[in-house]
Design brief:
By secondary structure, this protein is mainly alpha-helical. The chain has one domain. 38% of the residues lie in helices and 8% in strands. The protein is built from 3 helices and 2 strands. Strands 1-2 form a two-stranded parallel ribbon.
Length: 50
Amino acid sequence: MDSIKSRLRLPAICAPMFLVTGPDMVVSACKSGVLGAFPATNARTEEQLV
C-alpha cells in the first residue's frame, strides 16, 4: 500500500462505475496520478477482461 500511496498525486480513486468506466478512463486516471479501476462485470466477454 505504501508504494502505491507514494506514487499518487492526489489521495483519490477514479471509482469503478458499471458500464461507464472503461480502460480508457482508467488509463487517463492513472496518468493523472489518481488510482483508476473498473469493475470486472463491465467486460461482456472473457476476452474483453484480459
